[in-house]
Amino acid sequence: MTFYPLGVPKTVIVDDYLPLDKNLNAVFARPGKDGSIWPLILEKGFSKLLGNYGHIDGGAPYIGIQYMRGSPYVKYTHKDETADSVWNLLQQHFKDEDLVTCSTPGGDDTDTDADGLV
Predict the structure, then answer these.
(1) Domain that holds residue 50
(2) Is the pLDDT of residue 69 over 90?
(3) pTM of the full structure
(4) Which of 19, 25, 44, 93 gives 20 to 30 Å between its CA and that of 32?
(5) How many CB atoms neighbour CB 43 within 10 A?
(6) Rounded distance, CA 19 to CA 52, Å?
């Protein structure tokens, strides 16, 4: 797999040995509904690039996209924006065929905001 930290290509070699629990279920990323394991392989490659699985705990999705594409990113926060301005911004990025990710702050699955988002 080739990643692009700081825009420079870096290739890592991964195998199909994946972290599984005693019931043979994936420990971190989950297989797709169709049984595909590419998310697990991608996660393994990314963790190998950064040193280990502990180094990819949490984090922001835009960083992963940057590493996969080698491209810059723009980060927006919506707390000082209206719903319409956020919607218009998203529509422009969709029109430009940009990759768009979103995330919420939180330390674990029990941390939620006023809207119940983790």
Answers:
(1) 2-72
(2) no
(3) 0.71
(4) 93
(5) 21
(6) 12
